[in-house]
From TrEMBL:
Gene Ontology MF term list: copper ion binding; protein-lysine 6-oxidase activity
GO cellular component entries: basement membrane; chromosome; endoplasmic reticulum; extracellular space; membrane; nucleus
Function recorded in the entry: Mediates the post-translational oxidative deamination of lysine residues on target proteins leading to the formation of deaminated lysine (allysine).
Location(s) in or outside the cell: Chromosome; Endoplasmic reticulum; Nucleus; Secreted, Extracellular space, Extracellular matrix, Basement membrane
EC id: 1.4.3.13
Full protein name: Lysyl oxidase homolog
PANTHER family tied to this protein: LYSYL OXIDASE HOMOLOG 2 (PTHR45817:SF1), LYSYL OXIDASE-LIKE-RELATED (PTHR45817)
Family assignment from sequence similarity: Belongs to the lysyl oxidase family.
Pfam family membership, one: Lysyl_oxidase
Posttranslational mods: The lysine tyrosylquinone cross-link (LTQ) is generated by condensation of the epsilon-amino group of a lysine with a topaquinone produced by oxidation of tyrosine.
Species in which this protein is naturally found: Gadus morhua (Atlantic cod)
Protein encoded by which gene: loxl2a
């Protein structure tokens, strides 16, 4: 909530008159409800959470947590302009306040219009300490048209950037008039006392990492009566202080300024274009910070590159300033949330940074101070962010049609056909998980759950039956479907649209499989095994081609190892096919829920494949789970298969096909690689950690596995996002 930077001295006569008026009201009605104002303060990570503070008698104070309940939190949040409360926190979670403790033993029914109407000990009557200051977490949505009243009487309902004439056809709008909604009307802000720091905050709110100078060329009469004073590190204008009252002329124009016009600098991925134009290409530079595991654009677990390895950031002291530095560094605006407790999934590898402290003006998170000696932080404390992104209109050219709910349906795109824009279907040839991931992300619906090549059970719009997009191939990192490779105007879709149109289903949470590299490194060994003991493995094509026709008394040399596969995501990993579609293998007498669950390869140092193997998922189950997590999946008696979040499945080294046949491999140095879910058959939140690589040395009799790592080792010559 906006609050005053400094109070202005009033003339003595008006001051006496104001005091006499207040005294008269008190004498007239001694039982009148005291007037209070509320705000959220302290070490908060979101603008809709914080320490609950009360303004009364010219002084801000706190509220004690004694007898405080969710009903009191609801009253407070609604008084602050939010729809409801999500939670409340005791024991000064957002830091200890200062000054008086205004309210104690607050007892609300939940339907009061103000916290002052709830039962309490009375304003200023408390036996608490500031270590008992209460905090609240409100819902992110605000009440439509709510008037945020500051302690100088202004009514602020909303803020916007109204595009200048030259920006009206630009996407996104990067330049415009700053306007606030006051009393139901949009009003411009006078440039008197306006600073670039104010522009920085506004641009950040609208998804832009930077700002530049811009001057107004017109003067209007519809002005807001106050200024704003921001430090530049705020994540939202509501966190800034209110500046002095602006002097307006009798005709409503600004006495000493013009309307504020700001110009924002977009990130590279959001470079402005005309509505139907083309984006300029740019050279990708090596990032030092990245986001992983996020369901939508601009959110994810924070990972940092150090000494060639990606690692995570501990959430100790993680706040909005640090989160905003990350967001701006990656080309987004300020942070909407600074998430803790691995809310967007657990990472892998080292924890590179702990107790991060940023001023808010650093160019990179790597420039912020942190405690390099702090230990004891695990991946259950991985920090994450949600960033503001520009209004790109991504979902205006794509929709889902015919589904049972908004998260599924036939994919329809808005494309130019015969000189006009029309909705049409997408060809399902080669349509898969990666394409579905892009669709769900573009629509803000999270991760892909399934990709469908037949959608006869979803009745799309009759006018959108014709195919307008074909040959779609995505890498999974694109922001929109039209950024993927596709045929353009030269369509080629033999099956046509209709029942064969592409479809998707989306979900807000997804699994994330990660291989334990250390377990592979520690369990590797060679075994010489006779062919007569490998007949079932031969039937499942787990041996090299030279084994075909080999004598039953001959031997095969097998590179064996154990696989320990963890689910670090936020939902369970389940085979895509239902139990009725699993394949029965008579020799091994078990079902395969996924024909290729993992793939094993041996490469020469120049990248040539020397040998390979694969493992079907004959039994996906919870071998072990973290403390406090119950196992859900067990293969006994043909039970359900999968890996629960927080659990892992172990394929022991002595199981058939848990190997690479190296009978024909010559001694030398090699690269050993394991890929989980190689065909992207099941959607995950992050595929970059599905690959494990090791250096491998074979002397003809023994084998050494060393330097195992997940993903790709980064060198100065390697450039990728």
């Amino acid at each position: 909530m906006l609050h005053t930077l400094s109070s202005r001295r009033l003339p003595s006569a008006p001051l006496l008159l104001l005091a006499w008026w207040a005294l008269s009201l008190a004498q007239a009605d001694p039982n009148a409800t005291p007037t209070i104002q509320l705000r959220l303060a302290g070490d908060k990570r979101k603008h809709y959470e914080g320490r609950l503070e009360v303004y009364h008698s010219g002084e801000w104070g706190t509220v004690c947590d004694d007898d405080f309940t969710i009903y009191a939190a609801r009253v407070a949040c609604r008084e602050l302009g939010y729809l409801d409360a999500e939670a409340w926190t005791p024991s000064a979670k957002y830091g200890q306040g200062q000054g008086r403790i205004w309210m104690d033993n607050v007892n609300c029914q939940g339907n009061e219009k103000s916290l002052a109407l709830c039962n309490s000990n009375g304003l200023g009557v408390s036996d608490c300490k500031h270590s008992e200051d209460v905090g609240v977490v409100c819902t992110q949505k605000r009440m439509p048209g709510f008037k945020f009243v500051s302690n100088v009487g202004n009514n602020l309902e909303d803020v916007r950037i109204r595009a200048t004439y030259s920006q009206r056809k630009r996407v996104p709008v990067t330049e415009g008039f700053v306007e606030v909604k006051d009393g139901g009307k949009w009003r411009q802000i006078c440039s008197q006392d306006w600073t670039p720091l104010n522009s920085r905050v506004i641009c950040g709110m609208y998804g832009f990492p930077g700002e530049k100078d811009s001057k107004s060329k017109s003067s209007l009469k519809n002005y807001w009566g106050f200024g704003v004073n921001c430090t530049g590190t705020e994540a939202d204008l509501s966190d800034c202080k209110l500046g002095r009252q602006v002097e307006l002329k009798g005709n409503g124009t600004c006495e000493q300024g013009m309307p504020v016009v700001i110009s924002c600098v977009p990130g590279r991925a959001f470079a402005p274009t005309v509505s139907a134009g083309f984006r300029k290409a740019y050279r990708v530079e090596q990032p030092l910070v990245r986001l992983r595991g996020g369901a939508v654009i601009g959110e994810g677990r924070v990972e940092v590159l150090k000494n060639g390895l990606w690692g995570t950031v501990c959430d100790d002291n993680w706040d909005m300033k640090a989160a905003t530095v990350v967001c701006r560094e990656l080309g987004f605006g300020s942070a909407k949330e600074a998430l803790t407790g691995a809310r967007l999934g657990q990472g892998i590898g080292p924890v590179h940074m702990n107790e991060v402290q940023c001023s808010g003006f650093e160019k990179s998170l790597t420039e912020c101070a942190f405690n390099s000696e702090a230990t004891g932080c695990g991946h259950e404390e991985d920090a994450a962010v949600k960033c503001n992104i520009p209004a790109m209109g991504f979902n205006s050219r794509l929709r889902l049609s015919g589904g049972r709910n908004p998260y599924e349906g036939r994919v329809e795109v808005l494309a130019e056909r015969n000189g006009s824009l029309t909705w049409g279907a997408v060809c399902s040839d080669s349509w898969g998980t990666m394409e579905a991931m892009v669709v769900c992300r573009q629509l803000g619906l999270g991760f892909a759950d399934n990709a469908f090549q037949e959608t006869w059970y979803w009745q799309g719009e009759p006018s959108a039956e014709a195919v307008v997009m074909s040959g779609v191939r995505c890498s999974g990192t694109e922001l929109t479907l039209d950024q993927c490779l596709h045929h353009g105007k030269h369509l080629n879709c033999p099956k046509g649209g209709g029942r064969f149109a592409a479809g998707v289903s989306c979900t807000q949470a997804a699994p994330d499989l990660v291989l334990n590299a250390q377990a592979v490194e520690q369990t590797t060994y060679l075994e010489d095994r006779p062919m007569y003991a490998l007949q079932c493995a031969q039937e499942e094509h787990c041996l090299s081609s030279s084994a075909t026709g080999a004598s039953s008394t001959s031997y095969r040399r097998l590179l064996r190892f154990s696989s320990q596969i963890h689910n670090n995501g936020r939902s369970d990993f389940r085979p895509r096919s239902g139990h009725q579609s699993w394949i029965w293998h008579e020799c091994h007498r078990h079902y395969h829920s996924m024909e290729v669950f993992t793939h094993y390869d041996l490469f020469s140092l120049n990248g040539t494949k020397i040998a390979e193997g694969h493992k079907a998922s004959f039994c996906l189950e919870d071998s072990h789970c973290e403390e406090g997590i119950q196992k859900k999946f067990e293969c006994a008696n043909f039970g359900a298969q999968g890996i629960t979040t927080g659990c892992w499945d172990t394929y022991r080294h002595d199981i058939d096909c848990q190997w690479i046949d190296v009978t024909d491999v010559k001694p030398g140095d090699y690269i050993f690689q394991v890929v989980i879910n190689p065909n992207f058959e099941v959607a995950e939140s992050d595929y970059s950690n599905n690959i494990m690589k090791c250096r491998c040395r074979y002397d003809g009799n023994r084998i050494w596995m060393y330097n195992c790592h997940i993903g790709m080792i980064i060198t100065l010559q390697t450039f990728f996002i």
